[in-house]
Specification:
Layout (H helix, E strand, L loop, with lengths): L10 E3 L13 E5 L15 H14 L3 E4 L3 E2 L11 E5 L6 H13 L3 E6 L9 H9 L11 E2 L22 E5 L5 E6 L14 H16 L4 E4 L37 H13 L12 E4 L6 H4 L10 E2 L2 H5 L4 H16 L6 E3 L8 H4 L23 H16 L4 E5 L20 H6 L46 H4 L6 H15 L5 E4 L8 E7 L6 E7 L11 E5 L24 E4 L6 H5 L28 E6 L5 H4 L1
Parallel strand pairs: 2-3, 2-14, 3-6, 6-10, 10-11, 11-12, 13-14
Antiparallel strand pairs: 1-15, 4-5, 7-9, 8-9, 15-16, 16-17, 17-20, 18-19
Helix pairs in contact: 1-2, 4-5, 10-13
Length: about 650
Amino acid sequence: MPSATALDLGLIHPADSPDSPWWRDAVIYQIYPRSWADGDGDGMGDLPGIIARLPYLSELGVDAVWLSPFYVSPMNDAGYDVADYRDIDPLFGTLADADALIAAAHELGLKVLIDLVPNHTSSDHVWFQAALQAGPGSPERDRYIFRDGRGPRGEQPPNNWRSVFGGQGWSRVLEPDGTPGQWYLHIFDTTQPDLNWAHEDVRAEFDAILRYWLDRGVDGFRVDVAHGLVKEEGLPDFRGSMHLPDNPIGTRFPMWDLDGVHEIYRRWRAILDGYTVAGDTASERILCAEAWVRPESRLARYVRPDEMHQAFNFDFLACGWAAEPLREVIENSLRSNDRVGAPTTWVLSNHDVVRHASRLGLPAAATGHALTGVGAQDPQPDAAVGLRRARAATTLMLALPGGAYLYQGEELGLPEHTTLPDASRQDPTYHRTKGTDEASIGRDGCRVPMPWVADTPGFGFGPTGRTWLPQPEVYREYAVDVQDGVPSSTLSLYRDLLAYRRKHRFGHGSLAWDEEFTSASVIAFRNTSGDGERTVLVITNLGEQNIALPDGDVLIASGPLAEDGSVRETTVEPASFGLEPVALDAIARRRLARKAQTVEHEVTPGRKAPRHDPPVDHRERSCQRHLALTLPTRQRESAL
């Protein structure tokens, strides 16, 4: 890993054109439909509930929403097992509700992305049911991956592939005559049979599905398991882990990241481009890849000009909270995507990983698929440390060039539900691995329903107080109504960050490492507008020593600075955030201390102060702060 002195401290990423399409710097908010808002009181979130809460997102300041699956499904994997791609599951509402949601979002200036699940269907899908009835060698079976088993009587799976959810990746079927027969591949749950993307029926069907939803007005698709659609010819055995990040970089996978996937996405891109109104970049429809692919140069292949528009940067999400690895991920990601002319798409949390307000507070750095769940018997995150780091990590992310995705509730600083009762767990990962050497607690802890109103049953999730997963009592302190209007709250921080990001167009800026502040324990870069009129200096201090700031005026902070205006050590000052983002204009430095006072807690009368400014953990010796400084070009030299 390169040291700070080995880094190229020149320009890393050039500024984007101010006329770039909306998606190149968009901030997109993920809604997990069953957990965001319940409109009918059954304890399950739904589309009417989402519609009622959309003004909240408009006020937050995001550009678009991404909805996790709402299709007809037996819900064995929370809707990622789709039985009908052209209808809404009654749990969530109706097609009329979906149309109303799209219209309401557009009225508020929000674009709408929906989840597309092309790697597999539900075993309840009409195609799979037809395949079971048709028998070996039939055209119906050829739409999926059926194979004869190994062994004298075909009693062994066709190869040694495991399921990502634990256990073997094959299940044997009973043939129409009742005898044991062929095996079908399911990289995930047994109820999620993999499609055969070499079959033209499959390709044509998804072309039609794309057009169906584009015609209904959606603005794009997040593509589930985008790296997994094509399998290697012959389905050879594989000795590594099915979790791609657990393998050495350069590992060749027979089921992940094969070159054949790119032909599929070029075909899709042509379909989406056909919906663009000439000369109107706001009309562009987009594809975003969920692709767990390394290194960054391989991920960049998914966002070449004729393929996808965005791809989640999971290396950024999984990076431990240390300056040099984080800096390396940022630089490599920007350089790799710049080579293909694509923006980088940053993300810190989603429905598959431990929330970053908890993940960054774990006692030891954890990365990759070790982040898929924390149970009551596991080492518990430090809530205060985690929230401090999470606030700063988000501030760093939103100051980077490119786009970003937010996961519902992170704007409240929501922690993972790490003490969820096992009896309440629904994730198939937990049930498939329980009691085995692959045991995983599962992802339910990050999917708990949102708290909206502190002093109501279910924290305002729905009209009856019912929730499909139990909420921890601590969620009361994070509820929207507790944080709304409180300047020091995490919700207020997100609103301010998004407002400044949009006003100053940080997503379109250039990035260069700052030589003065960059060190082995400090990340420092300058984000400059394309016309050179605006420069933002962003500093993240992960070391033990305070950092004196250049002259300037504090514009925004996640927590108070030290009395002398420096970035202070967490072990010294009480009620201090671990990572502090600050933006300064090049004015008098003496105003720093006065401005910092404005981030003290202001709490609604009669309401207990929420834990958005937690006390310092005196066991932690590292100082972690994040700041951003605005330096007009004409004053840059004097400010340095």
